[in-house]
């Protein structure tokens, strides 16, 4: 999908020439190649790179709208453009020069280390940094300051996958590649809604299944996601029971002689211990634990054991758990026992969540790692890195991982916290802990491209950083493929590259510390990468045969790629030799353990979290694009239909979702993907988009106010996927809806201006809407009507004031309808009290339909829609703006045919699903719901 053409140049000036730059998408770990079109001052369009082996030109809805996140109007409103500094704890953060800011930081860090030791400083960084950025952060902390307190949001994402690979295979290296999808005859997707989380990879799965109709697909997930609906076998397991499922499948494979005894004898160790451990996982016992049919368990085990090539793909459903390492290891056990590894179409394939979480692991950017996949606990590894860096030693004291790090900040043990390219005030579990820590820290440094995140509000120092269209370096995707990341535009304002910010600070800190040499001589990212490359020599991820020049001339390459090699390795362990002391893979006893917080009579619902199709993480980037809200426009908790009925709930009713840590009001929606007793909330909704007064009057912090901080004992990854909650209907009879278009130069500023108002209501949310134009939608609810002055103040922000506004007021009932019309069309409106007319008035506003024919209906207290009015409903296809009602109407008019024929006919008529393909799984669901007879 390309950007619309840029505005024509002023009369008499030639249009700026359009240049094209190859880079990668900055969202998920698929690592799609992107061609960025720019005129030197702004990005004018993006398209998929047809030569990139990760995507071959395809982009999903998020990737295909990247140019919209870089428009000049949005950049001016959303970006951090100059350093800001608060020198007094209670003072205001004010603009400052880079010299003043960096000198202040060097002095404070040196003083704090002198007074409290190096471990009084900590760094919390991100899988969205480039590898070069990661490397210098790691060296600054462990090499110069002398602390291992450097961890990353990858701890919330991939650390259980890392631990599982290392325990069993000996190294943190996904052994499979994307090409294996084409060679598999069984695909086992577990704990991943791939259709949403890795859409372009899912397009590849769809292609492979069309090319090989005999391919089978098993999906294990607590929800019947769009991925699960496509499965040949769906195992709707209870949350957290994955390890029991894999152990049960292995039990059946052993019982029915479906294991590869030759492979086990030649290439593995510790099999007898594993065999004894899975003896107790009988089919009946496992089916009861997982909540699935015993026959389905047998079918899954037999399909896996009998497959010529079985490829498993998994993500956060396994990782984000207090037993995440056991889940990963038990699945890998299943592969090792059946010989499903080291051959085309087979292997345990962990799908990386973030664009460069893999690169961060390569440089050791976590509290327990060192560069080149070295372990912090290994003295030889520490000595090797110390020699490379030119320091006396690397500290041996274990660093704080993410959750303990914030606990230490809250307790005052860590004085200075440096946060880069991540938003822990939204993304971390147990938000009360995180917010208390940020309040208690002596100094919070936030290095960020977007100034509107919840974490920036706590910053004493704001360091403006570049983002995807401006950065240069490398990233590594899920299949170990390294891609050059090149800039299309110069840095805006005073923003600087992340690596440059770190290097400049490090040199000043060296001067303050009295060092006579620098550990940071870099002037280009290539110099950093070359040092990183040398750190991998002789390691499992050896990339000494690569260079920036080779990556530019020959394209993205997979590691390992040692010096002298002609190509990287597609898949690992084809020779049956593993990077362990014995050269053998190790079976790991990985017993099933119940979730850290089981449900009970007080908290009877199992709440899970996950992704929306068109949003990314905390939405600091996707949240600037109005059309990406059209598929899921507002926060919600999704429940099974029978749970809605038992609680006398209908769609849109507000409910209290309460855990042992906090509570968040949310609208309830019925979902046919849900099992009774379960609740689902998308992970993206932080306090930037949904809030309220909170139970203590201090405001609520979004969905992660509910999640818990229990961690896996091996990976230290927190349990973000499951929490026990109770759900009670909220009695908030008074409602307010204010919605209106905004100028492109003001829409994000308007949305940000609503945040203080959100905390003045029991419940409030604020999102964007629109496509060619953008607007803001503000919704609130309370148990009594708001003060008229407050409503008037909010309305004024939307331009709903003055003589041109049409008004209906019923002060006795607390109802009001105020409408602003411009050129015969709705421009903004405010509904207070009775908001039932919202359904059709919003359609008129968003559709920019003329309202002259409506007459008194505009202000009538009745909620009745105009005769003949038909709501479009939710947008399913974002590329072509195709709504649910249009799809269902077209399907209803079609002649009988097979589901495939119905889908093709639908795509021919409406074009939906013919561009990025992200909506295809949902289109299939809609086709099936119409039950078109063959």
TrEMBL record:
Annotated transmembrane regions: none
Keywords, comma-separated and alphabetical: 4Fe-4S, Iron, Iron-sulfur, Metal-binding, Molybdenum, Nitrate assimilation, Oxidoreductase
Pfam family, one: Molybdopterin
Domain 4Fe-4S Mo/W bis-MGD-type: 18-74
Names of required cofactors: Mo-bis(molybdopterin guanine dinucleotide); [4Fe-4S] cluster
InterPro entries, sorted: Asp_de-COase-like_dom_sf (IPR009010), BFD-like_2Fe2S-bd_dom (IPR007419), BFD-like_2Fe2S-bd_dom_sf (IPR041854), CT_Nitrate-R-NapA-like (IPR041957), MoPterin_dinucl-bd_dom (IPR006657), Mopterin_OxRdtase (IPR006656), Mopterin_OxRdtase_4Fe-4S_dom (IPR006963), MopterinOxRdtase_cofactor_BS (IPR027467)
Claim: tRNA processing is one of the keywords in the record: no
Family: Belongs to the prokaryotic molybdopterin-containing oxidoreductase family. NasA/NapA/NarB subfamily.
PANTHER family: NADPH-FE(3+) OXIDOREDUCTASE SUBUNIT ALPHA, RESPIRATORY NITRATE REDUCTASE
Name of the protein: Assimilatory nitrate reductase catalytic subunit
Lineage: Bacteria, Pseudomonadati, Pseudomonadota, Betaproteobacteria, Burkholderiales
């Amino acid at each position: 999908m390309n950007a619309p053409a840029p505005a024509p140049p002023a009369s008499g000036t030639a249009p700026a020439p359009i240049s094209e730059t190859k880079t990668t998408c900055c969202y998920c770990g698929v690592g799609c190649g992107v061609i960025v079109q720019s005129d030197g001052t702004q990005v004018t369009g993006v398209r998929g790179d047809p030569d990139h082996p990760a995507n071959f030109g395809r982009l999903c809805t998020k990737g295909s709208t990247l140019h919209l996140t870089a428009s000049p109007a949005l950049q001016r409103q959303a970006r951090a453009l100059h350093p800001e500094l608060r020198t007094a704890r209670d003072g205001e953060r004010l603009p400052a020069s880079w010299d003043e800011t960096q000198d202040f930081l060097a002095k404070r860090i040196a003083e704090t280390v002198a007074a409290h030791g190096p471990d009084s400083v900590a760094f919390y960084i991100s899988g969205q940094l480039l590898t070069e950025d990661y490397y210098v952060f790691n060296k600054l902390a462990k090499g110069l300051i002398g602390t291992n307190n450097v961890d990353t949001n990858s701890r919330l994402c991939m650390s259980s996958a890392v631990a599982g690979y290392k325990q069993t295979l000996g190294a943190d290296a996904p052994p499979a590649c994307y090409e294996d999808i084409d060679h598999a005859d069984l695909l086992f997707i577990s704990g991943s809604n791939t259709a949403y989380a890795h859409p372009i990879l899912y397009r590849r799965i769809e292609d492979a299944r069309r090319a090989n109709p005999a391919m089978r697909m098993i999906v294990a997930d607590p929800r019947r996601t769009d991925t699960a609906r496509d499965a040949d076998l769906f195992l709707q397991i209870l949350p957290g029971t994955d390890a029991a499922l894999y152990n049960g499948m292995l039990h059946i494979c052993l019982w029915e002689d479906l294991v590869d005894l030759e492979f086990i004898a030649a290439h593995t160790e510790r099999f007898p211990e594993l065999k004894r451990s899975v003896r107790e996982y009988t089919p009946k016992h496992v089916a009861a634990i997982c909540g699935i049919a015993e026959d389905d368990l047998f079918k899954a085990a037999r399909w896996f054991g009998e497959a010529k090539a079985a490829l498993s793909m998994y993500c956060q459903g396994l990782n984000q758990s207090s037993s995440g390492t056991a889940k990963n290891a038990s699945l890998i056990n299943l592969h090792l026992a059946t010989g499903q590894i080291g051959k085309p179409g087979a292997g345990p394939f962990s799908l990386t969540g973030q664009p460069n979480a893999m690169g961060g692991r390569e440089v050791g950017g976590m509290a327990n790692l060192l560069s080149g996949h070295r372990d912090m606990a290994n003295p030889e590894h520490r000595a090797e890195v110390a020699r490379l860096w030119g320091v006396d030693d690397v500290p041996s004291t274990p660093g704080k991982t993410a959750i303990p790090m914030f606990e230490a900040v809250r307790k005052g043990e860590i004085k200075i916290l440096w946060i880069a390219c991540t938003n822990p005030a939204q993304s971390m579990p147990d938000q009360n802990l995180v917010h208390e820590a940020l309040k208690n820290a002596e100094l919070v440094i936030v290095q960020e491209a977007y100034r509107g995140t919840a974490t920036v509000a706590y910053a004493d120092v704001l360091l403006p950083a570049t983002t995807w269209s401006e950065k240069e370096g490398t990233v590594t995707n899920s299949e170990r493929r390294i891609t050059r990341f090149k800039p299309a535009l110069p840095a805006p304002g005073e923003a600087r590259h992340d690596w440059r910010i770190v290097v400049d600070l490090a040199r000043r800190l060296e001067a303050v510390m009295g060092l006579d040499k620098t550990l940071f001589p870099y002037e280009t990212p290539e110099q950093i990468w070359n040092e990183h490359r040398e750190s991998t020599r002789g390691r499992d991820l050896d990339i000494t045969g690569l260079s920036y020049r080779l990556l530019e001339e020959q394209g993205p390459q997979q590691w390992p790629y040692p010096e002298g090699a002609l190509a990287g390795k597609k898949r690992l362990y084809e020779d049956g030799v593993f990077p362990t002391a014995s050269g053998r893979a190790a079976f790991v006893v990985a017993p099933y353990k119940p979730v850290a917080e089981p449900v009970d009579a007080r908290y009877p619902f199992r709440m899970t979290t996950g992704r929306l199709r068109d949003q990314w993480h905390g939405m600091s980037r996707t949240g600037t694009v109005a059309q990406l809200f059209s598929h899921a426009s507002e926060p919600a908790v999704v429940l099974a239909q029978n749970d809605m009925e038992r609680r006398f709930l209908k769609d849109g009713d507000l409910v209290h979702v309460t855990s042992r840590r906090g509570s968040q009001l949310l609208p309830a929606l019925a979902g046919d993907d849900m099992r009774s007793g379960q609740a689902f909330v998308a992970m993206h909704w932080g306090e930037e988009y949904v809030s309220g007064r909170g139970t203590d009057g201090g405001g609520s912090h979004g969905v992660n106010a509910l999640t818990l901080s229990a961690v896996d004992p091996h990976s230290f990854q927190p349990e973000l996927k499951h929490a026990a909650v109770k759900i009670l209907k909220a009695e908030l009879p008074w409602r307010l809806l204010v919605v209106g278009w905004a100028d492109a130069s003001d829409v994000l500023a308007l949305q940000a201006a609503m945040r203080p108002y959100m905390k003045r209501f029991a419940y409030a949310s604020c999102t964007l809407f629109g496509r060619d134009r953008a607007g803001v939608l503000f919704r609130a609810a309370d148990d009594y009507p708001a003060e008229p002055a407050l409503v008037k103040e909010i309305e004024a922000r939307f331009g709903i004031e003055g003589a041109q506004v049409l008004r209906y007021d019923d002060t006795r009932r607390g109802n009001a309808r105020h409408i602003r019309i411009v050129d015969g069309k709705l421009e903004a409106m405010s509904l207070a009290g009775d908001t039932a007319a919202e359904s059709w008035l919003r359609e008129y506003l968003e559709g920019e339909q003329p309202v002259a024919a409506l007459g008194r209906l505009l202000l009538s207290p009745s909620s009745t829609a105009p005769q003949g009015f038909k709501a479009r409903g939710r947008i399913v296809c974002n590329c072509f703006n195709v709504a649910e009602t249009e799809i269902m109407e077209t399907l209803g008019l079609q002649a009988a045919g097979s589901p495939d024929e119905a889908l093709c006919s639908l795509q021919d008529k409406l074009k939906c699903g013919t561009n990025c393909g992200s909506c295809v799984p949902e289109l299939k669901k809609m086709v099936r719901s119409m039950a078109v007879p063959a």
